[in-house]
Every structure is written in structure tokens, then in C-alpha cells.
């Protein structure tokens, strides 16, 4: 097993090196120093700023320095936008708020989608299956932004008006934090998580239903039923176990996209997560923070791929031999 994990890591390292190389090259297509200094900087001003920011060094040296900082978690370079803070001090506080949205949303949407997909597959062709698939298609068809607007209106304004007290807030305000993790999460994070779950469930339910329907026609399912196994035992012990590989694939692919997709939620709910931090510093031409966040997001994609391969090997040992 260890040798398999090492092989997967070695296989993905060159891919990550190429991704970082491409990202750094693309960010340098337009001179970042000239963009940062705005209109008509003099040549002397530009050169002084290049020296200050380390951009006067050869590209290969900058590339190696970037890889070294990622590998050693050394983010001591200065932010261009928040000049008194380092890149690490800017990015560090934004990680936990993003995880407070991403991890609960991923967990709830996966469990809910698998359960709904299982119910729909077991009742394939019946009214309950058609009804669930109708709502799944509706959920897929409506824009993410529409769900955010509706969620803010009904979850915050309308509900507050009806109950006379605020349960969900549409704006993250540090001054209103109580110090109680659960209470603060309910007020500031539960509504974005609920919106993210609603958006994800439509796509995931259709996928899991198709996977489960495909498994229901397999020989081992017919054999289990012929032996007299109950429907519950067939579904939960035999079918779901064999459907784990596509489920794992879906979950691990979804995770990085949920982190990136939380950008809209973080912007509309003023949550200081990685997505909002990236957008803020891109807008303010903060080259150092932008390239570091993009490189970290790429690392998350690569790590999710490695973790997917490892989970494959645990679920199905035949994968290691192939």
C-alpha cells in the first residue's frame, strides 16, 4: 500500500510543477509592476519597485523561490495591497471561514444526495422517482445567484420579520461574534451552507441515481436477491459498497470546486474566506497574494486526486495491482 501511495505522489508532482509554472507565466504576461503602479510610471520607479518586490530576478529563480515557499510553508513575502502584512498573514485567517462553509456543505450534500438517489433508484419509473428527478432538474436549472438572492430574502429578511428575531445574518460582522462556535456558525454560516447544499443536491442526486441504477442490474445483486436477502440488506450492504468508487470520485472532485464556488457566497455574505480574499487582492493588483492562493488551490486539486487514488486502493485492492 505504501509503495502505491508513493507512486501516486511521484506521478502527481510533475503535474503540480507544470501548473505552478503556467500560473506564474500567465500572471506575468502583462507587467504586474506597471499595473500595480497604475498610470504612466517612470522607468526608474518601475525598476525600483521590481527590485523591492523581487521581480527583477530571472523567472527561473522566482519559480524555484515560489516552490520553496509552498513546500516549506514560508509565506513571508509582503502583500502588495496590505503592505504591513505578509502573504501568510493575509491568507491564514481566510482558510477557516472557507472550511466552515465547504466541509459541512460537502458532508450534508453528499449524504442527502446518496439517500435521495437511492430512494429514486429503488423506485425507478414510479411517481416518487419522477418527482425527485423533477426537483433535481429544477435545482440544476436555476442559477446559483438566484438561490443566493432567494436565500437571503426568505432566510434572513422574511424569517426575521415573521419570528421577530434574527436567526440568520446576511452579513458577517466580527463585532457581533459571541465566542460560542455553534451559535456563531448558525448565525453567519448556516445559511450559505444551506444554499450550497441546495445547489449541489440537484447535480449529485442525478449522478448517484444513475450509479445506483446501473448497480441494481449487476449479477451480484440478482444473486443476493435469489439467496433471499432483504431489500435493505441488498441496498446497504451489497449495492452501496460496490458503488463506493464512483461516490468517492464524485466527492473528491466536488471538494475543490466547492472551495472555488464558495466565492459568490463569501462575497454576498461578506465572509472573509479564501475566495473573497482572492477577489479582493486580484482587484487591488496584489500579485503576491494572488499567485500564492492560486498555487494553493492547485495543490488542493492535486491532493484531492492523490487522496482519491488512495481511497480507491482501500475500497478495491485490485486497483493497487493495476
TrEMBL record:
GO biological process, one term: transmembrane transport
Membrane topology: Multi-pass membrane protein
Keywords on record: Cell membrane, Membrane, Transmembrane, Transmembrane helix, Transport
Gene Ontology CC annotations of this record: plasma membrane
Protein name (record): Oligopeptide transport system permease protein OppB (TC 3.A.1.5.1)
SUPFAM superfamilies with a match to the protein in the record: MetI-like
Transmembrane domains' residue ranges: 9-29, 101-122, 134-154, 185-203, 243-269, 289-315
CDD domains, alphabetized: TM_PBP2 (cd06261)
Methyltransferase among keywords: no
Amino acid at each position: 500500500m505504501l509503495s502505491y501511495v508513493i507512486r501516486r505522489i511521484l506521478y502527481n508532482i510533475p503535474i503540480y510543477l507544470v501548473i505552478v509554472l503556467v500560473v506564474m507565466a500567465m500572471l506575468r504576461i502583462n507587467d504586474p509592476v506597471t499595473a500595480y503602479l497604475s498610470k504612466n510610471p517612470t522607468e526608474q520607479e518601475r525598476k525600483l519597485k521590481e527590485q523591492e518586490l523581487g521581480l527583477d530576478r530571472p523567472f527561473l529563480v522566482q519559480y524555484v523561490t515560489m516552490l520553496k515557499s509552498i513546500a516549506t510553508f514560508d509565506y513571508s513575502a509582503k502583500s502588495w495591497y496590505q503592505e504591513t502584512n505578509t502573504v501568510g498573514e493575509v491568507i491564514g485567517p481566510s482558510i477557516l471561514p472557507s472550511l466552515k462553509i465547504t466541509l459541512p456543505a460537502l458532508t450534508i450534500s453528499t449524504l442527502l444526495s446518496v439517500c435521495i438517489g437511492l430512494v429514486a433508484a429503488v423506485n425507478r419509473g414510479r411517481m416518487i422517482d419522477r418527482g425527485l428527478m423533477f426537483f433535481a432538474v429544477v435545482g440544476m436549472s436555476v442559477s446559483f445567484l438566484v438561490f443566493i438572492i432567494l436565500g437571503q430574502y426568505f432566510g434572513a429578511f422574511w424569517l426575521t420579520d415573521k419570528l421577530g428575531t434574527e436567526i440568520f445574518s446576511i452579513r458577517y460582522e466580527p463585532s457581533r461574534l459571541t465566542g460560542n462556535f455553534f451559535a456563531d456558525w448558525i448565525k453567519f454560516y448556516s445559511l450559505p451552507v444551506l444554499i450550497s447544499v441546495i445547489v449541489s443536491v440537484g447535480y449529485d442526486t442525478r449522478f448517484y441515481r444513475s450509479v445506483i441504477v446501473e448497480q441494481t442490474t449487476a449479477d451480484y445483486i440478482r444473486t443476493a436477491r435469489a439467496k433471499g436477502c432483504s431489500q435493505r440488506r441488498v441496498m446497504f450492504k451489497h449495492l452501496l459498497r460496490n458503488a463506493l468508487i464512483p461516490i468517492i470520485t464524485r466527492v473528491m472532485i466536488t471538494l475543490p470546486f466547492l472551495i472555488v464556488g464558495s466565492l459568490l457566497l463569501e462575497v454576498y455574505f461578506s465572509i472573509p474566506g479564501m475566495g473573497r480574499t482572492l477577489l479582493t487582492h486580484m482587484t487591488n493588483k496584489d500579485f503576491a497574494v494572488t499567485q500564492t492562493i492560486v498555487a494553493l488551490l492547485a495543490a488542493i486539486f492535486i491532493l484531492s486526486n492523490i487522496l482519491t487514488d488512495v481511497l480507491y486502493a482501500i475500497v478495491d485492492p485490485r486497483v493497487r495491482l493495476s
